Amino acid sequence: MSPNYMRSFSEGCLRPPTVIGQFHTLFFGSVRMFFLGVLGFAVYGNEALHFSCDPDKREVNLFCYNQFRPITPQVFWALQLVIVLVPGAFFHLYAACKSIKQEDILQKSFYAGFYMFSVFLRIILEAVAFWLQIQLFGFKVNAIYMCDVGALEKKFNITRCMVPEHLEKTIFLIAMYTFTVITVILCIAEIFEISCRRLGILKTQ
Known about the structure:
mainly alpha, de novo design (two linked rop proteins), three-stranded antiparallel beta sheet, 7 helices, 3 strands, elongated
């Protein structure tokens, strides 16, 4: 791919054809990623080291932590961010290959429909991620986790484990749910903006 295509692709990703899309990019790229990258590491970075069970043995702690966290929240949210970016990136790659200018996207029905479809996909992916987050992490992190250690052939099948910084993790969970909801609202608003521009209610940029 030539440098012109790469430049057009990067400009399209950073400067979508709608005002709300540009705000979404700013919110998604700065606030959400900064929150996850910086604060997420601070909250979850040493969780496995401080996760302790009774009896406090390495094999029990490791077994119960893997049971408690089938997937770490940082990995899940990082995958969510990458996957949600795919539809928009695919559209802007198509636009770059076809040499479509950003200001022309909303002028033609096919391009506008294609772009709107990518926004719909973002909404669906965010909704699926929201549901998966509920299934994996719930809405609250309890201070005590009851672990089933029967597979380790211990005397007791259930043991108590202490979850470090459970209140901070609960707050972080709620924040990530909130970010997902905000992103979905922005996507819906972007579809509304595209529709208004197509109908002539709003002037095209």
